[in-house]
What we know:
Layout: E1 5-8, E2 31-37, E3 46-52, H1 54-69, H2 74-88
Parallel strand pairs: 1-3
Antiparallel strand pairs: 2-3
Amino acid sequence: MREIETITWRELTGNKFLRGIDSGMLSESGYVKQSATRKVGDREKTIFNVVYDREYLIRSLGKVICRPLFILGKQKTLELVAEAWDTCYPYSASKSLQPVEVADDNYAKV
């Protein structure tokens, strides 16, 4: 049985931004997903461990949020993101919540 090759998302063919986003992409090693896919130059699908990193996350956010809302400007877009956050997590600004220290300092850096 052959060893599964690890590649980066940049080596994928077609639309590279179908995976979605995950906070693991901010880690030093990135978010690894095993996929049956083609990499650039291959004709047939093969199983790869695909690494999605911080750059992928940033580009995905740009594609999904920034580009469609560009006409509104950065400030209005950030206000909408803040409102969406408050809608999803209405109690996150509450004084009863205490900050939690993350074990990996790189995990939460954006």
